[in-house]
């Protein structure tokens, strides 16, 4: 079977907006969610800015039971449950009766590291001979699949419930995995997405690698500069994005609103060969991933009219644009419009792909291409290959037809998914 798959629900918990309305406004108007973090200064971080969702306690109370809130100390789970629950609701779906699972609904919700604060708390209790004070949820909060387990209990999933983990590629990969399951007839609906914890214990390793910007602590909103000649490293972020993927037959049968169609995607690895490494992508693998995604989607290279790149604001940005250009065989004015959302909320690590996919899909719904911030000084290697008008600094009215979204992660792993404006 190769059934058509559509997107019927979106949810987001991002540094620049919790909920679709706030998130959309931030992308449209260039509102940054990157802020100075006093805790990072106290800990003597070089980079003292980050993107962290602003989630109020009274909002959390709406998503968790009092029992679930007892001892809850895992920010990634909070973000993921908010985004996932909102996406399910946005799709017009409700949790089934507690006594009967929904056998046709599943979850693929990824993460990189989950419950790091809870894990640290647990280590201290164990070392202090207070193991009995760990509580009954310590395991659930610190196992990688804790997020998919929480969501499964909320919506009553009876199909596949799992968690994937592929560094910065995680969220985009989860969407492709969910697409494959529905297209092959193994499920009718899948909640797909990813989340990432906040805080110094997640971000510290990157600061130690000196790949985060250090000169923007007093001007946080200027720190993340994808595509820019003055890019100085990625700003760390956190949060979650979630999408409901559904067979077209199921969506039509219940009269669901459809954001877009998923045409397909590709996942591969560069094997850490030919220039690829633990932290750098193999360009041939990136190009292969993009080409294979286009082929699997059944479209021509010249049909892609918008790209949402990985584009982290490092020295690899010009190489990524070159890879897109070579893979699609397009440059200059023929290059698709391209944007990079990390300028507004940083690099949300395992959550990056899912949050950015939500943003990319909102462009269909709002008939626009969201602008790029902090790249008025385009890197010359980029401007020599792509006409600057294809990298808008302000949101522009436009009706995208096909959007390609890619993520490239630590470990030399790649994912590219193709979305199309829904056309019955």
UniProtKB/TrEMBL annotation:
Localisation: Cytoplasm
Domain Ketosynthase family 3 (KS3): 2-421
Transmembrane segments: none
EC number: 2.3.1.41
Protein name: 3-oxoacyl-[acyl-carrier-protein] synthase 1
A GO term, aspect molecular function: 3-oxoacyl-[acyl-carrier-protein] synthase activity
Subunit structure, as described in the record: Homodimer.
Keywords associated with the record: Acyltransferase, Cytoplasm, Transferase
Assigned protein family: Belongs to the thiolase-like superfamily. Beta-ketoacyl-ACP synthases family.
Source organism of the structure: Ulvibacterium marinum
GO biological process: fatty acid biosynthetic process
One cellular component (GO) term of this entry: cytosol
Catalytic activity: (3Z)-decenoyl-[ACP] + malonyl-[ACP] + H(+) = 3-oxo-(5Z)-dodecenoyl-[ACP] + holo-[ACP] + CO2; a fatty acyl-[ACP] + malonyl-[ACP] + H(+) = a 3-oxoacyl-[ACP] + holo-[ACP] + CO2
Keyword Acyltransferase assigned: yes
Superkingdom: Bacteria
């Amino acid at each position: 079977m190769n059934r058509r798959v559509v997107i019927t629900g979106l949810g987001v918990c991002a540094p620049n907006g919790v909920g679709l309305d706030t998130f959309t406004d931030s992308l449209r108007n260039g509102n940054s969610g990157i802020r100075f973090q006093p805790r990072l200064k106290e800990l003597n971080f070089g980079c003292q800015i980050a993107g962290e969702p602003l989630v109020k306690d009274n909002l959390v109370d709406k998503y968790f039971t009092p029992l679930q809130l007892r001892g809850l100390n895992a920010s990634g789970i909070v973000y993921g449950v908010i985004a996932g629950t909102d996406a399910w609701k946005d799709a017009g779906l409700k949790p089934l009766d507690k006594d009967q699972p929904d056998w046709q609904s599943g979850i693929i919700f990824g993460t990189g590291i989950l419950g790091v604060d809870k894990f640290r708390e647990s280590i201290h209790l164990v070392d202090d001979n207070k193991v009995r004070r760990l509580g009954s949820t310590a395991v659930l909060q610190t196992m990688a699949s804790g997020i998919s387990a929480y969501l499964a209990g909320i919506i009553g999933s009876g199909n596949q419930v799992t968690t994937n983990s592929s560094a910065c590629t995680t969220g985009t990969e989860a969407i492709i995995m969910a697409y494959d399951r529905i297209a092959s007839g193994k499920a009718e609906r899948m909640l797909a997405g990813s989340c990432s914890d906040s805080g110094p214990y997640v971000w510290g390793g990157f600061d130690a690698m000196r790949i985060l910007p250090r000169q923007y602590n007093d001007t946080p909103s200027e720190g993340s500069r994808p595509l820019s000649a003055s890019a100085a490293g990625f700003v760390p972020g956190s949060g979650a994005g979630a999408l409901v993927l559904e067979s077209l037959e199921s969506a039509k049968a219940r009269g669901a609103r459809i954001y877009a169609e998923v045409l397909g995607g590709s996942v591969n690895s560069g094997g850490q060969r030919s220039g690829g490494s633990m932290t750098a992508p193999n360009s041939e693998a990136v190009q292969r991933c993009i080409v294979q995604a286009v082929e699997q989607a059944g479209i021509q290279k010249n049909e892609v009219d918008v790209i949402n790149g990985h584009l982290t604001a490092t020295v690899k940005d010009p190489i990524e644009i070159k890879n897109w250009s070579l893979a699609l065989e397009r440059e200059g004015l023929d290059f698709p419009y391209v944007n990079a959302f990390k300028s507004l909320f940083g690099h949300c690590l395992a959550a990056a792909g899912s949050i950015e996919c939500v943003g990319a899909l909102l462009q269909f719904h709002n008939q626009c291409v969201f602008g790029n911030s902090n790249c008025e000084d385009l890197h010359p290697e980029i401007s020599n290959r792509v006409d600057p008008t294809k990298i808008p600094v302000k949101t522009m009215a436009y009706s995208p037809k096909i959007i390609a979204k890619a993520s490239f992660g630590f470990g030399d792993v790649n994912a590219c998914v193709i979305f199309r404006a829904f056309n019955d």
